[in-house]
Amino acid sequence: MSFSLFMQHLTNGISLGSLYALIAIGYTMVYGILRLINFAHGEIFMMSLYFAFYGVAIFAMPWYVSFIVTVIITCMLGMLVERAAYKTLRDSPRITVMVSAIGASFFLQNLAVVLFGGRPKAFPTVQIFTDVIKIGTVSLQRLTLIIPVATIMLLYSLLYLVNKTKTGMAMRAVSKDHETARLMGVDVNRTITITFGIGSILAAFGGIMWGMKFPQIQPFMGVMPGLKCFIAAVIGGVGNIYGAVIGGFILGIGEIMLVAMLPQLTGYRDAFAFVLLIVILLLKPTGIMGEKISEKV
Amino acid sequence: MKKRDIILTIISISVLILFLMFANSRFDSYQIRILNLCAIYTILGLSMNLINGFTGLFSLGHAGFMAIGAYVTALLTMPAAVKNQNFFLQPIVPWLENVTVPFLPALLIGGIMAAILAFIIGAPVLRLRGDYLAIATLGFSEIIRIVFTNTQNITNGALGLKSIPNTTNLWWSFGLAALTIIFMLSLINSSYGKALKAIREDEIAAESMGIGLFRHKMLAFVIGAFFAGVGGGLLGNLLGAINPVMFRFILTFNVLLIIVLGGMGSITGTVISAFVVTSGLEYLRVLDESINLGFVRLPGIPGLRMVVFSSLLMIVVIFFRNGLMGTNEFSWDGLFALLRKRPSFLKREVGR
């Protein structure tokens, strides 16, 4: 493999990894605060693509207006899902909440089929982002460079929010202990809803960039990225934001490199994430950056 | 067991057999197919309930085990000529081409293959807990599906298998469902069953009482996988065509739905809800078709069925958390008590 080809694959891997990282952060935040997998996260991601599509294609908004509206609506959708599927079951056994979350995810999928139709649609292309540029011998879409930069910017604003603001402090408190946080005057329900909202905002950013990179959208497209990004979160250590980003990059780069180096395994591309997950779970069940949780008797 | 109960049980079993004979001769093929599906989903629901409901392991790998059972049974029952028709892209591997066995051994081999795989998977995976276990089993079932999509000369890849002999009939499906119920009942009431329930209630307490956690979890996992394989085999030979896309996560979800609605840890609940959910899903198909009200014709909206279904599911999960039966079981005493309008409908189970 020549150097320029390698760089081509590497940049592709990094931009795919950044997208995975953005979605994985949503999983890891919800898991950190509720100890639950948000099964509907992949569907929220899918819905954001449709919102952006309809904004540009049907309501003829300029792309930047449409993208901002998308982020806002997706955030609201995420909070709505939390209110409907999670809040009502706050003190129930985990399996019930899990089933309710899976139910919400199937509801959104099929709602998308009913509302938007099952046929794949072409995501609008934005010239500024999709133009091809050449750096040395490597030619790539401008988007491929923008995605990692945007991801890092979003990551740092999120870290600022979590570590420096009052809302972030409340989120950290709730993730440690619901009861104690409540006694300290934290509105637990509101904090959890905000966490879902923030996760959904990141999913919307991820979705918009995903749509520009892979411009085909259909109602069931959220399932695989959803699963893979949860895996990315687990690999990095679920509950840890840095971990989610690292996991996302490992998964994205690993996947692209697997296909690039061993083309005969192309069909097994989706299995790579699952194999990696199982290997990680066996070697270090808490993930790369996860803290060890000892069981209380 | 009281004499009255024995008589009542015999009567109800003979009524069921008479009903099946009637159904077999009078019902049209669509209704027979739904009945078959109900019985198959009973088997699948019971096998998943053993893992998730009785042992408390949150496993989401059922579709994978069903895929193994379905493919093994289909490949073993298809005659060589049909196999050659199916495999037109790449010829089938020679050692599989001329193997044809009767239905029952094929089903059993399918179940055993699923159980062996569960044993291999279980060794590493059952050390995990809760959500991690769920996502790891889900991962394995996806891996099985992806492998089946890519092994062109064994499973015919994404094309799937067609013209599988339609050997599943009411006798096979209901007979095996009855056998599964009897097996599960005797397992649950044995000392193994008590150990499994103890693990569900509190792993650490169970371990300190001297219950081997890993051994019992593995037992439940392997037995569950065996019945999932048998159910998958019945399903494949009922539908006549299978492909890897069939065995996506949504299939696991359907079975999970059945056990959650029926009550995690109740055999009766699973049986009832398997029938209600399966026939309900079929009859909701009305929603996808266009409805003619005489004066106005409402066009059908594809997908509306699943929207209604998933919202129904969420309503049930949110408002009736323990499902239909909770962890209770049917008993004749309970039924008579209900008929006499006594509040204690069903015998409360010990410890819950």
UniProtKB/TrEMBL annotation, chain A:
A GO cellular component annotation in the UniProt record: plasma membrane
GO biological process: D-alanine transmembrane transport; L-alanine transport; L-isoleucine import across plasma membrane
Keyword Cell membrane assigned: yes
Superkingdom of source: Bacteria
Residue intervals passing through the bilayer: 20-37, 67-85, 97-117, 143-162, 192-210, 230-259, 271-290
Classification via InterPro entries: ABC_transp_permease, BCAA_transport_permease
Keywords recorded for this protein, A-Z: Amino-acid transport, Cell inner membrane, Cell membrane, Membrane, Transmembrane, Transmembrane helix, Transport
GO MF entry, a single one: L-isoleucine transmembrane transporter activity
Record's bilayer topology term: Multi-pass membrane protein
Localization terms from the record: Cell membrane
Chief place where the protein resides: membrane
Family stated for the protein in its record: Belongs to the binding-protein-dependent transport system permease family. LivHM subfamily.
Name of protein: Amino acid/amide ABC transporter membrane protein 1, HAAT family
Protein species of origin: Alkaliphilus peptidifermentans DSM 18978
Automatic annotation (TrEMBL), chain B:
Entry's Gene Ontology cellular component terms: plasma membrane
Residues spanning the membrane: 6-22, 34-51, 63-82, 103-126, 169-188, 218-239, 251-281, 301-320
Subcellular location: Cell membrane
Pfam families found in the cross-reference section: BPD_transp_2 (PF02653)
Record-level Gene Ontology MF annotations: branched-chain amino acid transmembrane transporter activity
Keywords: Cell membrane, Membrane, Transmembrane, Transmembrane helix
Keyword Membrane: yes
Transit peptide keyword on record: no
Domain of life: Bacteria
Main localization, broad class: membrane
Topology relative to the membrane: Multi-pass membrane protein
UniProt-listed InterPro entries: ABC_transp_permease (IPR001851), LivM-like (IPR043428)
Protein name: Amino acid/amide ABC transporter membrane protein 2, HAAT family
